[in-house]
Amino acid sequence: MFLIKEIEFIDYNENEVIMINLINGATDIIERNVYNLIINNRFNEIDDEILSCMLERRYLFNSKKEYDGFLEKLDNRIEMLEKRATPNFLVVPSYACNLHCIYCYEQTYMIKGTTNIDSIKMVDIQFDKIDKIMKVYEDNYGRTNDDIRITIMGGEPLLKCNLKTVEYIFEQAKKRNYTIDIVSNGVDLNYYIDLFNKYKNTLDHIQITVDGVKEIHDKRRIFHDGRGSFDLIMENIKLAIKNNILIILRVNVDDTNINELPDLANVLVKEFNNSEKLKPYLYLLQDGGCSGEQNIVNEKIGIEKIFELEEQNPNMAIFRKKFHPENFIESIFNDEPYQPVLRHCGAAKNQFILDCKSNVYKCWHGIGNNDYRVGIFYPKYELNDEKINAWFNRNVKVIPKCKDCKYRYICGTGCPAAKHMSDDNMDIKGPSCVNYDELIKTIILEKMKKF
Ligand code: SF4
Ligand code: SF4
């Protein structure tokens, strides 16, 4: 018998241990005496029924050869799926912004404002490149009926002065049957309601950040003259929801707002009455951007704190928690199959970012930063093969430390930008580890309290 190394054992109580398969998410509670037999490879002393269950759920293989063959097939299958992953595109109509948030890393970059090229013409050029990329994809993998998504971001894309450009992006997307989502600060959203109503079937959602109740938010997400933006943003969120527009509300969490999250939860429940058009989530900041590292909360400590706050205030359940192993753990508790990964995110797959200055990027973090661009698309279309391939090849089969890591099918090499928001030394060839051991244990044990 061969026991896979991709297993997490978690002490559940005196008599029981939780056993998790880190490849497929199979999870079982076993008696401690069985656990002791398993970790000491004394399989001939284990009950036949348990053994056959362990084989079926792929904790165990009949031999190392069988395990190696299984992994080879699995890796090939994931590689094929990730190579032909549905392309997604981000377009940046302008780098201008009406806010001056304290942690915004884009402020460190020198690319500001719009381009010399007429912004409507630039949308045509961007969509021309998107068509070319789609053509290559379709030639290689056939036509796709999958949802092709265009994300509009900035700077702040929904500035009042961008209205015509954004409308033209919607027109072009609709023509191709693509879906749009938008990352916005929400300040000028009221000027866009008619447009969104006109393109209801093209717009999927708008993501807006609110960092806490008014007193907290207004210290962080401020106008250039120092005024806070909370009241305006909340009014615009209400307006959007009234018009049936889905708002994904992001809360950037650090040491300065974590304790006030229950207050924000209360405000959201009171104002929006658990509307299905409002989906708030918590994101524990990994990097402080321009504001430095002093307020970053260690993820494990942050997770424990958030669970503790939820115990005291059930309204905290309104927040989805985007912790690192979230997809994996959700698949366990929702009893859904887990899709293992070799790559961390779209940057290492078919994601392309086209800005208003004719730059191409792969990673969101690199937007506006010359060091991270992988090519240009105007006046000629020229991609830097070395840089593009560095992104495509960033997977757990290539990075030596990841090859042997038991969390690789959950992590997929990690996000190289997460720890480098405020510097220029992002190393995309190296691993970007997260302490999955600690995080998985903490979240599973917290969730089991309610299970
Ligand atoms: S910031 Fe990280 S997760 Fe986001 S696109 Fe870049 S590499 Fe991927
Ligand atoms: S980045 Fe670190 S945690 Fe992630 S797969 Fe690689 S070695 Fe494992």
Structure overview:
By secondary structure, this protein is α/β, with parallel strands linked by helices. The protein has a domain at 2-62. The chain contains 15 helices and 16 strands. It has an 11-stranded mixed β-sheet. Strands 2-3-4 form a 3-stranded antiparallel β-sheet. α4 (119-141) packs parallel to α5 and α10 (299-312) runs parallel beside α15. The mean pLDDT is 92. The site of one iron/sulfur cluster (SF4) has 9 residues, from loops.
Helix-strand layout with pairing:
Elements: E1 2-3, E2 7-11, E3 16-21, E4 27-31, H1 32-39, H2 48-56, E5 60-61, H3 64-83, E6 88-91, H4 119-141, E7 149-152, H5 163-175, E8 179-184, H6 193-198, E9 203-209, H7 214-220, H8 230-242, E10 247-253, H9 261-272, E11 278-284, H10 299-312, E12 320-321, H11 326-333, E13 351-354, E14 359-361, E15 375-376, E16 382-383, H12 385-392, H13 400-403, H14 408-411, H15 436-450
Parallel strand pairs: 6-7, 6-13, 7-8, 8-9, 9-10, 10-11, 11-12
Antiparallel strand pairs: 1-5, 2-3, 3-4, 13-14, 14-15, 15-16
The protein binds iron/sulfur cluster (2 copies).
One iron/sulfur cluster binds at residues 344-345, 347, 363-365, 415-417.
